[in-house]
Design a protein that fits this description.
The chain is α+β, with helices and mostly antiparallel strands. It contains ten helices and ten strands. The strands form three sheets. A five-stranded antiparallel β-sheet has the order 1-2-3-5-4, covered by helices on one side.
């Protein structure tokens, strides 16, 4: 039985972050977190009325077998205080808006796991504002486009996460496109073992992946990407600025990987974020690879006790249909 964080677990953190007169009065675990716990804490006796607490406790990680992942793999599940702080520092230095950190404790002095207390920017995600306040959402989307431009122009001769050393410019001596291909083939094999519709088309999908990868030309420069930049990972602050969250996976990589995800998640609104000069062959490979990842990953998560099961099953089903459509 998982023991998730409760109010008594966070009282000391709140006092340390906000001052001795501060008191936690309620705690709400926000939906969607699969690698860390995200808690909204309402407080009295402090300059602010709410903060967000990130907890990277083992019990907050719902991914089966994540501990066995190679941390040097850019696609290994990114989680923890160290990658969070490294990503936050890089984005802040570039002028990209991220939540302010009020306290970070990796020594487990105040809590039995690594934690951070951060600014509670808003309850408004860009996703919600698209329906609730389209004008405000449109302005924030423009700001997000400027932020992604800044990130993608921040080039490096090596790819990988910001918190890990990168000595030779590649992971395991392979290119980005080979890394994506190998991962997609593994996702295909895993998904084939879980769903007969993927299994029935596995040979065609495998051939298609190899064909698309063979068309991609080498590259030796990489932009800074978020990795999972959907409208649910963007908050909108009181000034209307786009604020990036869930940033632990920020890394240097092919910007086409980011744009495939942006196109997938923003749909009809993607043209605001689209930019000229993207490699269409890379986009084709990455589109199929990402669809397969979004089948295998959610199905893997459902092996465990992740609570929001219907939503995760829906993600897998939607992307399974989309992956098969790319064969036609």
């Amino acid at each position: 039985m998982r023991r998730l964080t409760e109010i008594e677990d966070l009282s000391g953190l709140v006092r340390e972050a906000l001052g001795p007169g501060s008191r936690a009065v309620s705690v709400e675990r926000l939906r969607g977190g699969s690698k860390k716990g995200v808690y909204r804490v309402r407080v009295d006796g402090a300059p602010v009325t709410r903060v967000i607490v990130y907890s990277w406790a083992e019990a907050e990680n719902f991914w089966p077998g994540q501990a066995r992942a190679d941390p040097g793999d850019p696609f290994a599940p990114a989680s923890g205080l160290v990658p969070f702080l490294a990503a936050r520092r890089a984005l802040d230095d570039l002028g990209v808006r991220v939540p302010r950190v009020l306290l970070a404790d990796g020594g487990r002095r105040l809590h039995p796991a690594d934690v951070a207390v951060v600014e509670d920017v808003s309850e408004d995600t860009l996703e919600r504002l698209f329906e609730a306040d389209p004008a405000r959402a449109a302005a924030a989307l423009d700001d997000l486009a400027a932020a992604t431009d800044t990130m993608h122009r921040h080039r490096a001769p090596r790819y990988g996460r910001l918190d890990l050393p990168r000595e030779d410019g590649t992971a395991s001596g392979v290119s980005c496109e080979r890394l994506v291909l190998d991962r997609a083939l593994a996702d295909l094999a895993e998904a084939s073992g879980r769903d007969r519709r993927i299994a029935a088309e596995a040979d065609r999908l495998r051939d298609r992946l190899h064909h698309l990868a063979a068309r991609v030309a080498p590259r030796a420069e990489y932009g800074l990407i978020h990795g999972e930049l959907g409208p649910d990972h963007v908050l909108v602050d009181a000034d209307g600025r786009a604020v990036l969250i869930d940033i632990e996976g920020v890394m240097h990589f092919d910007v086409e990987w980011e744009h495939v995800f942006l196109r997938l998640r923003f749909g009809d609104r993607y043209p605001v974020l689209s930019r000229p000069g993207l490699d269409p062959r890379r986009m084709d490979l990455y589109a199929l690879a990402m669809r397969l990842s979004l089948v295998a990953g959610p199905l893997r998560l459902l092996d465990g006790d992740f609570p929001d099961r219907a939503a995760m099953a829906g993600i897998a089903e939607h992307n399974l249909t989309a992956a098969l459509a790319l064969l036609h």
